[in-house]
Amino acid sequence: MKKLKVTGSPPRPLPTAALLGLALVTPALIGCPGHLENIGFLGGDAGVNVTPQPPPAPVYLDAAAPIPLPPPPVAVDAAAPPAADNIPPPGDDTSFDPATCFQAGEVLRIFKSNCVGCHSGAMPPAGLDLLTMGAKGRMLNVQAKNAACAGKPLLAADGTGVFVDKITGMMCGMQMPRMKAPLSAKLQKCLTDWVKPAAPPPAAAIDPKTCFQGMEIVKNILTPKCATCHKAVMGAAGLDLESMGAKARLNVGARNAMCMGKPLANLADGSGVIIDKITGAACGNRMPFNKPPLNDQEIWCMKEWLRQGSAGPFPPQPTVTVLPPGGVQQPPAQALACAQPAAIQTLFQQRCNVCHSAVMKAGQLDLESPGVKARVVGARARNPGMCVGRVLMDQNGGGFFIEKLTLTFPLGCGQGMPYGGFAPLSADEVNCIKEWAKN
Questions:
Q1: Peptide bond into 70 cis (omega under 30)
Q2: Residue 211: count of CB within 10 angstroms of its CB
Q3: Are 305 and 352 in contact (CB under 8 A)?
Q4: What is the domain count for the chain?
Q5: If we measure between CA atoms, which residue out of 57, 14, 12 comes closest to residue 36?
């Protein structure tokens, strides 16, 4: 065979880097396994025959050997459900023990069953939240916001108040719970026992030989029973009973509306507005306000503190004397000659003119100036509310005026009179006004 002669320059060898790159990518491009030495045309000498090498045998998975599966996921036990709150259906009292139902946890169960459907959340009715902790503290000495009992305390220190009135259905509009059956007598007692103040510890024996001394008065009476309101800074009615020199500061006129200008204390005889207030004799609310009153022995010590020898014999027992409504300084109805205009004028002056004066005219009603009868009998109510336009008094002695005095007015017609927590008129005094209207 004749050999072909190749003319021209000999083939130029590829650079080493190019050879390596082709060796790496060529098998992948042609889809078969191979090695660099098996590819003959890459050599510099085209005449060299390279014997192809068989590719390595592929490795197959042994079908007989099972492929291990991942273990099944471990089930996580769900958290145990919280213990049941044991809230009974509304009105159900069977699970409450009278011996323990006044405790805070049991009271919360009563509220959750009957009350918190309304009285909870950011804006509860009348601003009263009964769900979160501290419900009793949120009611103590806080004035009610509903129209029928506005101004009265939700809960007073003695355990009375609008809260009790509402759950027992005594007054102040609709009985609570609203739109549900009233609480049973058992549940009512649980709640009234809850709000009832704890019994005070037995009072220490009072020594009449030392109890009237300044340090004793400050330690035993003024600081614990008066200075919580009558503080050195911004004391109630401008009266400071906290800092030193309290006795000297009592030699001024009273600033409260009921006894404006009367001396707080008459150091010459041990009398004065302060004695009237702690005995409940006059000038509005008895002091200490919303606290247990002073007993007779403590009052004796106060009188002796003002003027030694003015209090008379020392009381044998620390009893609390409760005066009738209006106190001893207010004459009974019979002494007012009942329906005579002068007597009615005196009654209005003592009990009503703080608000219904010729200047103030609360509700546009003046009970001070001459001609009161013409402004009341046959006249119409002008106070804003649902009862505007109602007849104040008719010639039979009835009407809205009497309803306000006896607290029998309809819901939405304002507050009872006298306003501001003052003692209500007695039945005799109301009868006097009725007879005055008839005549």
A1: no
A2: 20
A3: no
A4: 4
A5: 14
**184 close to 100: Cβ distance less than 8 angstroms:** no
Question: How many angstroms separate the Cα of 144 from the Cα of each of 151, 209, 235, 403?
Answer: 6, 45, 23, 20
- Residue 254 structural domain: 214-306
Q: Using CA atoms, how far apart are residues 282 and 326, in angstroms rounded to an integer?
A: 6
What confidence tens digit (pLDDT) does each residue in 81-131 have?
Answer: 444 468 889 889 999 999 999 998 999 999 999 998 888 888 888 788 888
Residues 218 and 188 in one domain: no
The tokens for 373 are 């009868």
In angstroms, the CA 305 to CA 298 distance is: 10
User: What is the Rg, in whole angstroms, of the alpha carbon atoms belonging to the chain?
Assistant: 47
pLDDT digits (tens, 9 = 90+) for 196-230: 877 666 767 899 999 999 999 999 999 998 988 88
- Cα separation, 55 vs 33, in Å, equals 6
Q: Is residue 70 part of a domain?
A: no
Instruction: Please name the amino acid found at residue 255.
Output: R
CA distance 111 to 183: 11
**Mean pLDDT of all residues in the chain?**
76
